[in-house]
Amino acid sequence: MEIKRIALTATIAAVAAAMIGCTAPKDGEYSFKVLTTNDIHGTYFDSTYVGNGVKRSLYAVKYVVDSVRRAAGKENVILIDAGDILQGDNAAYYFNYVDTVTPHVYPRMAAYMEYDAVVAGNHDIETGHACYDRVAADLEASGIPFLAGNAIRTSDGKPYFGTYTILRRHGVKIAVLGFDNANISNWLSESLWYGMTFENLIPLVQEQVDAVKAKEKPHIVIVAVHSATGDGDGSQLESQGLDLMNTLQGVDLLVCSHDHKPAVVKRDSICLVNSGSHCRYVGMGGVDITVRKGKVVGKELDASLIAVDRDKVDTAMRTAFHDDYAAVKAFSTAKVGELAMDLRTRDAYRGMCDYLNLIHTICLKSSGADISFAAPLTFNGFVKGGDILYNDLFTIYPFENTLNVVEMTGKEIKDYLEASYDRWITTVRGTPGEHVLKIAKREDQRTGQKSWSFIERSYNFDSAGGLDYTVDVTKPFGSRISISSFADGSTFNFDQPYKVAMTSYRANGGGSLLSDAGIDIDTVGERTASLLPEIRELLYNYLKENNIIQSESIGDEAVIGHWSFIPESVAGPLMEEDMKLLFPARR
Predict the structure, then answer these.
(1) Burial of residue 281 (number of CB atoms within 10 Å: 0-12, 13-18, 19+)
(2) How many CB atoms within 10 Å of residue 24?
(3) What are the start-end ranges of the H helices in 119-265?
(4) What is the pLDDT of residues 157-179, one digit of tens each?
(5) Is the peptide bond between 567 and the residue preceding it cis, with omega within 30 degrees of 0?
(6) What angle do CA 353, 358, 364 make, to 5 degrees?
(7) Measured between alpha carbons, how far is 388 from 386 in angstroms, rounded to an integer?
(8) Claim: this prediction has a pTM higher than 0.90
(9) Are 498 and 396 in contact, with CB atoms under 8 Å apart?
(10) What is the 3-state secondary structure (H, E, C) of 394-405?
(11) For residues 458 and 376, is the Cβ–Cβ distance under 8 A?
């Protein structure tokens, strides 16, 4: 019954609009500002919870939005979010899974800020039915449609969420269509999105735009997709922004997201805006129309980004949600154990380290698997030795990935590692000035500053626990990995199947490492031996059992094995220089 109600978003919105007034716009000029957010990843509050740290938040976004509303007139401003609202911060986690009795804070904040529409993102779906169904219902109850027109119910072929909503401003009809990422099934376990399929945005978006225009006769059309801007070459299912911009007809503004890269692309007939992530920017589309005899006879489009100042916030909003913040802070600052040493995630780039030893130990002991795959999921995370607060667990393991155990042959394991390290390192001769890490100096699209960074995404740099092996940096891809044995000294056989512990993201095809190892992602379910809880929960359970994390207990090579880059005389000096480039300011 709830699903049916959610699917009727457009109808409900149309009826509500009719109650406000359904007269056609009078002849004249109309100017609208479309403000957009995306990938806020739970940055609801402006506190880091521990210490006095301040971050950008919805409080600061509200300050920007109200500034534009005052300047342009509230009725002339439309506010849209393009997804990934429910994951990435303690606040989201707390209201997703810890306090599920109190109404979720995000729909309440969205209503307070008067969002006109919210689009579902892949990380929203990652929270599971219980969470996103509840959030969708709460948003709908506040008159805010939760849109994902390409999430299709398997039972009847209709959208699981809403596809569009119609806004009326001064008699002008504005259609807002929303769509989630098309690649979700390749990242998330079906247990999180059962009852749905996620369709390719091309040609679906155009088909839906045409249907809405034929039915509703809108004067302005906005499409918001939780898909990256991309390159416009049609090669990436998760990055279809420019693909859409190059092909869509009858759309004025296209809102993109997902890649965390701010972008603005302006053309005469359509503009694209992507506000990046974590409330750093608010996107702004401008749509000016001229109406004669009820029809639009002229239209001018624009797009830009508004930088968000973390210190300029809506203080009334902060006061209104203080109790919610206080609850999250209390949860975040609760002690959960002790750490006998500092943990630095960046140490994982040069070889074995306490950080990944911890992850491998937990994954192997929790699952009973023969081998584990794990990567540094925080680029440069740091947890100081001493008391471990729950807040620190989000640095050690920032995502809500579950642990899966998948059967792989010895050859597939070796090929998987070859693919992983090929994202990580380059082949070198040992000449000074060479880069053994696969890095480049380039402009950070979020900051505009040039700095050294990995060419590939570091969360795809999987190493293996439970094996003894080496990675020869002087050899080419395909011949770098040499596996000598299991951690306990037993023989590793290329033809034998083994049980491998990995994240749900990886098991569902994330990072393409399984595909590169020659495994058909569609058959991984047949290979899955067991499914375990979230890895952060396993980490929490480890602390409850052991209380303290020590290098000796998590570094037992009889359990986690040993690996290294060789030859040390070549890899060591080059690695040291590359690390200085990546992290010039050392702690």
Answers:
(1) buried
(2) 14
(3) 122-125, 129-141, 190-193, 201-216, 241-247
(4) 999 999 999 999 999 999 999 99
(5) yes
(6) 120
(7) 6
(8) no
(9) no
(10) HHHCCCCCEEEE
(11) yes
